[in-house]
Amino acid sequence: MWQNDDAFGGGGGFDTSNSQGTPAPAKKRSSDTIAHVSVRQVVECKEDALKIGNTEIGTVVIVGIARGIESSSVKVVYTIEDCTGSISVMLWLNADKDEGEDALPDVAQNAYCTVHGKMRVQNGKKFIIAFSIKPVTDLKALVVHKLKVAHTVFKLERLAQQENDQYSATRQETNDSMVGGGSNMFPNTDLSFGLNPQQLRVYKAVQQCKREGGSSKDEIASSLTVKMPKKELENILEFLVSEGHIYTTQDDSHYLVTDFT
């Protein structure tokens, strides 16, 4: 019931309708997103574009007091202040306005106004290029704005966490399928050496032994979490020896990995 369409442009605190896609922490959502933000969020952001969670904010909405107004024939520069800080807002004037139309927005100094625009950076300083600046006619709009700022942060950061969790789970499932078993089966495996899951299991079983004499076939077989026929084990051991991954030690039935130190 507090919604002021002139002040907030209608709708909710942000719009991510064009930002659907496969979640990945390294990817940003569409910069078409519109969000209510505080001045501090803009001024203190570390990048050239404002991000909340994984979402890049394309259009910011700020509500504050116009502390300073400097006008020229082509633009007006406002100093907008809210309870978190102040920022410069530049509005380019429309040279095509008909005679008699107001050349400047009806915003008085030290009065509340709503700004829609895009964040820009010049010489390391953040400012806003405004699409529109309108006076706030109902002070309830200030409360609505603050609620939307808080809701936007909560919603987008929670969405980012869900995306990151989903990405991690998908990556874990992929790793599990590559080794053909649980992700903790081979905790120190960074490379599969082109081996299939059965060959990799046998290789890791041999790798567990640090004795100079190596592991016997029986020890290797008993250490496998997924049992296999004796003939299959012997064939895999023979293959690993022929490929140089392992070698025989005191006899033809004891093995060590070639990277043993």
UniProtKB/TrEMBL annotation:
One GO term (biological process): DNA replication
Domain Replication protein A C-terminal: 165-252
Stretches the record annotates as Disordered: 1-32
Compartment(s): Nucleus
Gene Ontology terms for molecular function: single-stranded DNA binding
Stored Pfam families: RPA_C
Name of the protein this chain belongs to: Replication protein A C-terminal domain-containing protein
Superkingdom of origin: Eukaryota
InterPro entries linked: NA-bd_OB-fold, RFA2-like, Rfa2/RPA32, RPA_C, WH-like_DNA-bd_sf, WH_DNA-bd_sf
Presence of keyword RNA-binding: no
Keywords: DNA replication, DNA-binding, Nucleus
Similarity field: Belongs to the replication factor A protein 2 family.
Species per Swiss-Prot/TrEMBL record: Laodelphax striatellus (Small brown planthopper)
